Structures are given as structure tokens and as C-alpha cells.
Amino acid sequence: MEEEKAKQEVQIGNSKVNVVHPSIFNVVKQRQRIKEKLSGIKHKIGVYSAKGGVGKTTVAVNIAFTLKDMGYKVGLLDADIDCPNLHLFLNIKDAGEPEYPLKPLEKEGVKVISTAMFVDEAKRPIIWRGPMVAKMLSEFLEMTEWGNLDYLVIDCSPGTSDSNLSIMQLLELDGYVIVTTPQHIAATNAIRSGMMAKRLGAPIIGVVENMSDGEGRGAKEVAEALMCDYLGTVKSDGKFNAMSDSGRVPVSEDSEIKEEFIRITKKLVSGGD
Ligand SMILES: Nc1ncnc2c1ncn2[C@@H]1O[C@H](COP(=O)(O)OP(=O)(O)O)[C@@H](O)[C@H]1O
Ligand SMILES: [Mg+2]
What is the mean pLDDT of the chain? Predict the structure, then answer.
């Protein structure tokens, strides 16, 4: 009996993995390969909410550029595989035929990569079932050559399945910045996101209230439910739409927005308050 059990197990790092469940085996192997590939990255931070349209991409981009302005080496990864937007926010066009390993493009000192950069017709919808999304994301993580970075900021997709599950399983993140708006519905979905991360062992660094009226109701609701830090608020401002539509980064151009993001990013760097 013991002998039979031993035959089913393989030593991976410090743990024994049962190869009778090959999916678990693959995840462990993949996780190790990705860990080696990303070994030059000091900190990995996800920007996440289960709700779409709350400003995940906006917050990820502006935190990344604020970190770069603080003197850190920064990368930005678009993990929204089926509806990537990051390249649009940064006005990055088709990067041409992919060469392996994949090399991120550099935008004003920040390394950026998105699957959308390698898809010819970016407007064509990617209609994939969950396993395809997960496979694409894991291959993308394995194939990208980031080099040495202080921070990799990951712009997550909405929802609590597929690509977010893969990120939580495959990456050892420092933690998540959860994004909400003042709206109770957004806060409820932000709490769901944080609960999922916690269940899968990923820490929550803190919560940002975007499109805020300054009172921070949504962020307080989330911070209380997830027992995490309140990193700050970003006011609702029409400049965000105008700038992102033309591929400009708000913190690089607007001093008020820059101040908001410096406050948030300083707390993030120090691990919250
Ligand atoms: N603070 C803000 N004030 C006004 N508009 C904003 C703000 N933050 C984001 N937006 C706009 O809201 C829309 C959704 O933001 P986005 O970052 O794409 O959200 P998500 O990534 O969560 O789907 C975008 O058009 C963006 O320009
Ligand atoms: Mg987005």
C-alpha cells in the first residue's frame, strides 16, 4: 500500500506531489518554471477587482508610472487575456511577429507587455473557454523575459475565475491592491475579489477607492471586510478618459492626480499603514 502510494509521488522542491492528479502536478511544475523565469523581479503586485470598469487598468498604469518616477525599475503586465486594454491606455501598437522569449516594450521607462501587442487584429474578440485563457496566461508568464525589476504591476481581469485563479496559483505575489468605487455594489464585488485572494493564500496590500467623491465610503467598507489597509482615494475626473484615449499617462501630466498616486504608492511601497 505504502509502496503503491510512493510510486504515485514525485518530489518537487520541498513537497511530494501525487502524479495521479496530473493537473496538480502540472501546476506545481509550471509554478516552478515561472518562479525561475521571474526570479529577477523583487516585488509582484496585482491590481484587482471582480467588477469591470472600476479603474483597475487606470490604477495599475498610474501606480506603475509613479513607482518609475520614484526611481524603481518597473514592469506592467496585462493579465486581462480576453479583453486586454493596457496597450490602448499607453498607445502601444502591434509589436509585430513575436520573437521568443518575448521581450516587453518600453514606454517612457516602464516595461510593458500584453497579449494584445501580438494579435494582428486587436479589435477581433478573443472568444475562449476558461482553460484556454489559463493556458495562454501561463505560457505568457513562462515566455516573457523581464530581466531585473523592482516591481511588476499586474493589471488583472475582472471576475473570480480563469485568469485570476491562474495568477493566484502560478505566481507568488507580494499581494493585491483591490480597487473599488464609492458604490456599494463595487465594494461588494471588491470584497469578493479579496476573499478569493485570501482563500488562495495571496495577501491583500490594501484598497484604493477610484472615481471617489473624497469620502472613501467604498474603500472603508472593503478595508473593514477584508481587514486590510486603506491606501487612498482617486477623485473622479474627466481628464482620465481624455488622457487614456490618447495614450497619455495622467500622473506624468497632471500634478493633482500625481499627488493622489504618490500618496497611494508610498503606502503601497511601505506595505500599507
Ligand atoms: N478617477 C477616474 N475618474 C474618471 N474616469 C475614470 C477614473 N478612473 C478610470 N476612469 C475611466 O473609467 C473607465 C474604466 O476604467 P478602467 O481602468 O478601464 O477600468 P477596469 O480596468 O476596472 O475595467 C475608463 O474609461 C477610464 O478612463
Ligand atoms: Mg482593465
Answer: 89
